[in-house]
Design brief:
By secondary structure, the protein is an alpha/beta fold. Helix content is 42%, strand content 13%. Bound molecules: pyridoxal-5'-phosphate. Pyridoxal-5'-phosphate is lined by residues 49, 96-98, 121, 123, 179, 183, 212, 214-215, 252, 254-255, 262.
Length: 471
């Protein structure tokens, strides 16, 4: 049983509105959970990005921030934290993770570039393609098996990596990108051995290795749990060993340090110089990078807290609990339990909905309707169309129920389990969706959809039949 290793001293009131209001809210938000208003949401499991609970020490540090355009003491504290925790000497601050991706792509990606990666993240891919580059994903086949016990589904396929480099030519590959706790395949880690193997290939062909460290702490935690060599090690050693293998590390502090902001860290003065001028151009001066000094203070403290296993274990242990409970009931869910959230397998749960009608988007909408729980579609809606405007269907249709660090209690997790069980029993009532407004870039954020028929009304009718006037 997962156990909270903290106590709540500041709380926020939640709202559980009637199902009729939730149906209206879905229509207003175009059946896209990104478009919902938090007044209509009961448990917000959209993301862990910027929603992890902060610690008392983070809040206290925010009160002592040194507000200065240049040379702020808050930035100096952050630089030290990055050096102590990530082991990198030089830090370029940016306002969040995608800003780091933008700067890296402005500096290194051009038309014809190819970026091999274990798997894409939406914003990373958007910045690469925006600069005329392309990506290639090189996971092993087992990564796409939802019902699996493979401990390191985020591993990069080393043989394929070499093949791609030989085919494309190393000069057209400005960097290899590895993502810790690979987000879009269910928060699945890679092993240290795999990262070492990627490093060896990068060295052989003289290609930079870029590590997306947004979920570094959780990947390190799972290495401690699952990789024999590190079973007696500690968070600090594992994290520094990982970052030590990369030429350039970047992160979303919204995830890594339970704060806001982001950064790019490196030991190479050459890389630092290549990126330096882009920070004041796109973000802000080099000692704040578009962040407020209060965020910078919270980030410095949050980075040190990432080393504390009793902080990092919270989200993965609640995820493991919910995955096991759902799995015992036969509800298809991504396995083994990863980090970040619980990932429902919409391809199986809604096997009657074709991919062209977005099963994961439909399941996310249906779950919100019958519970007020807001998850995120991580399937074909989150993919972008190809250069000819064709749909590119996702390898997996997942609904992510994010479990941010230290936010939800066990009874709230049990509520999710209870409503999901009812929805699974009534899954045939869930229908498909179609776009009525589809923006060309990052459509999953702003897009609006509508149901293909009156399935939401039918689901409400069944809910009323079973639960009466209960919310
Ligand atoms: C792995 C990964 N990389 C990059 C980003 C982008 O970071 P941000 O949302 O701070 O722009 C995210 C955000 O969720 C992420 O999960």
């Amino acid at each position: 049983m997962p156990l909270e290793l903290h106590k709540a001293r500041i709380v926020q009131k939640l709202h559980l509105v009637p199902i009729e209001r939730r149906l209206e809210a879905l229509h207003e938000g175009g059946f896209n959970t990104f478009q919902l208003n938090t007044m209509d949401v009961f448990l917000d499991m959209l993301t862990d990005s910027g929603t992890n609970a902060m610690s008392d020490n983070q809040l206290a540090a925010m009160m002592q921030a040194d507000d200065a355009y240049a040379g702020s003491q808050s930035f100096i504290k952050l630089q030290k934290a990055v050096e102590d925790v990530l082991g990198k000497k030089y830090l370029l601050p940016v306002h969040q993770g995608r800003a780091a991706e933008n700067l890296i792509c402005v500096a290194y990606v051009k038309k014809g570039s190819l970026i091999p990666m274990n798997y894409h993240f939406t914003t990373a891919m958007a910045h690469i393609t925006d600069k005329g580059g392309q990506i290639v994903e090189l996971l092993y086949d087992e990564a796409y098996v939802v019902n699996s016990s493979h401990p390191f589904k985020g591993n990069m396929n080393i043989e394929k990596l070499e093949e791609v480099i030989i085919q494309k030519g190393a000069k057209n590959i400005p960097f290899i990108r590895m993502e810790a706790s690979t987000n879009l395949i269910g928060g699945q880690p890679f092993s240290m051995q795999n990262l070492r193997d990627v490093r060896a290939v990068a060295d052989k062909y003289q290609i930079r290795l870029v590590l997306d460290c947004s979920l570094l702490g959780e990947n390190a935690f799972l290495i401690l749990q699952r990789e024999e060599e590190f079973k007696d090690s500690d968070m600090g050693t594992v994290m520094k060993t990982m970052t030590g293998l990369a030429d350039l590390c970047y992160f979303s502090a919204r995830k890594l340090s339970s704060s806001r902001g982001g950064g790019i860290a490196t030991d190479s003065m050459e890389i630092y110089r290549e990126l330096e001028a882009l920070v004041p151009l796109y973000e802000g001066f080099l000692t704040y990078g578009g962040m407020s000094v209060r965020e910078i203070e919270a980030m410095a403290v949050g980075l040190y807290e990432t080393l504390d296993e009793s902080v990092i274990c919270q989200s993965p242990s609640f995820i493991k609990y919910l995955v096991e409970e759902l799995d015992n009931k036969g509800i298809p869910v991504m396995k083994p339990a990863g980090v970040l959230g619980v990932h429902l397998d919409a391809m199986q749960i809604c096997s009657h909905i074709p991919q062209s009608q977005y099963p994961a988007g439909s399941l996310a909408a249906a779950l919100f309707l019958i519970s007020g729980v807001r998850g995120m579609e991580r399937g074909s809606i989150s993919n972008q169309r190809d250069e000819y405007g064709n749909e590119t269907y996702a390898d997996m249709e997942l609904v992510r129920l994010a479990i941010p660090r230290r936010v939800f209690t066990l009874s709230q997790i049990k509520y999710v389990e209870d409503r999901l069980t009812w929805l699974y029993e009534n899954r045939e009532l869930i229908g498909g969706l179609k776009f009525n407004y589809e923006p060309p870039v990052l459509r999953f954020f702003m897009g609006k959809l509508e149901p293909v028929n009156d399935w939401p009304q039918q689901l409400v009718a069944k809910f009323k039949e079973d639960f009466g006037e209960s919310l």
